[in-house]
Amino acid sequence: MKTRIKELRARYDLTQEDLARKVGVRRETIVFLEKGKYNPSLKLAYDIAKILKTNIEDLFIFDES
Amino acid sequence: MKEKNMIILGIGVIVLVISTLSFYLIKDDAIDLFDIIAIPMLIVIIIFASYTLYDKIKNYKAGLPSKDERLENAAYKSGYYGFIAAIWSAVGINLIYNLMFDKDIRGGLVVAGVVLISGAVFAFSYIYFSRKGC
Hints:
Chain A is mainly α and 65 residues long. Chain A has a single domain (2-56), classed as lambda repressor-like DNA-binding domains (434 Repressor (Amino-terminal Domain), Orthogonal Bundle). Chain A has helices spanning 5-11, 16-23, 27-35, 42-51, 56-59; strands at 2-3, 60-61. A two-stranded antiparallel ribbon of chain A has the order 1-2. In chain A, helix 2 (16-23) packs across helix 3 (27-35). The longest helix of chain A is centred in the last third of the chain and has 10 residues, at 42-51. The radius of gyration of chain A is 11 Å and the shape is globular. Chain B has helices spanning 2-25, 33-61, 69-101, 107-132. The two termini of chain B are 29 Å apart. Chain B is mostly helical and 134 residues long. The interface between A and B is medium-sized, with 16 and 14 residues.
């Protein structure tokens, strides 16, 4: 799974720690999400999408292959 | 406030365990086989508790939660591995002891071994999953 978290985070000038604080997770969780090494819960995905003013489908890109 | 209390409680427990272990080690009696299993068990607990406490304090100072959904998943997954390790060690300890010494091992030692192995598997896999992702 690929994500656009890093790109959108940079657009809104947010650090990983800022985003982590806003959604109530640890900074490492944001690191793993950006690397595509962690699949978030629907709630966390929704919270991140809301903070980054986008929707879940645009934020997380699922690789069908 | 709850997280701060948990950190203080954790530090208290670690201090108590270390002081108890120190008193135990400096006693005059000879160390038997049970002690040889019990001491590494306590060392594993101390290392694991110290690591999780350090991690909690680090996040608490940064104003971040000490536990989130990723760590909960890591705990569930490590718990599963610990459970599997407990089952296999319960069978394996007696078998290995039997093959090596040609006699059965005391029940208490099997329990101690199971706790040590499953606890160590849980602790190290939890640290691994929390640092490398799961």
